[in-house]
Amino acid sequence: MAFVVLYDANVLYPSTLRDLLIRIAQAGLVQAKWTDQILNEVFRNLLANRPDLDPQKLARTRSLMNKAVRDCLVAGYEPLIDALELPDLDDRHVLAAAIKARAQVIVTNNLKDFPPSALEPWDMEAKSPDGFVLDQIDLSRETVYGAVQRIADSRHNPPATFTDVLAMLDRDGLVESAAALRP
């Protein structure tokens, strides 16, 4: 069985990071999970922060995400939410979904909101996206390198090179991962 990870909304928000995380899952390095509630947060924030984005294109992106990763949606986690304790009560749905999915890792930019003491009873940990991608590079540098190259190859308007995509990931907070992938 693949290593199960739950992606929090804040790591699915930046498009290049989202693309890389999905490609890592498609390559079979991990079984990525998320919920409709997490996606609602992602796309609500995208619309709020970028009113220039077409809501129909965002709906298409959401649909493509769910089709891109086999068995990605977690359901039935809601009864767990009220029993959980986290520093930010609004993040309990993320932990509840991770428990339901039997995830080993929650990939999030909000590490302080998922302290080890709250995750250890469930045999899971929170990792930053940079730490998570570094782990994937350690497991299979070629696979992650290939995912970045495919992102570059898919960019046409404007076109992007491998180095351009690394710069985008660097801006998304993957400083160490981008450095590890530089030729």
Major sheet description: 4 strands, parallel
What is the oligomer described by this structure? single chain
Structural class: alpha/beta
- Strands of the largest sheet, in order across it? 2-1-3-4
Overview of this structure, please?
The protein is of the alpha/beta class and 183 residues long. The protein is built from ten helices and four strands. The chain has helices at 9-12, 15-26, 36-49, 55-68, 92-101, 116-119, 129-139, 141-154, 162-171, 175-181; strands at 4-7, 31-33, 105-107, 125-127. A four-stranded parallel β-sheet has the order 2-1-3-4, with helices on both faces. Strand 3, helix 6 and strand 4 (125-127) form a beta-alpha-beta unit. The longest helix has 14 residues, at 36-49. The model has no long low-confidence stretch (mean pLDDT 96).
Descriptive labels:
183 residues; alpha/beta; 10 helices; 4 strands; 55% helix; 7% strand; globular
Question: What's the arrangement of secondary structure elements?
Answer:
Blueprint: E1 4-7, H1 9-12, H2 15-26, E2 31-33, H3 36-49, H4 55-68, H5 92-101, E3 105-107, H6 116-119, E4 125-127, H7 129-139, H8 141-154, H9 162-171, H10 175-181
Parallel strand pairs: 1-2, 1-3, 3-4
Helix pairs in contact: 2-8, 7-8, 7-10, 8-9, 9-10
Write a compact overview of the structure shown:
The chain has 183 residues and is of the alpha/beta class.
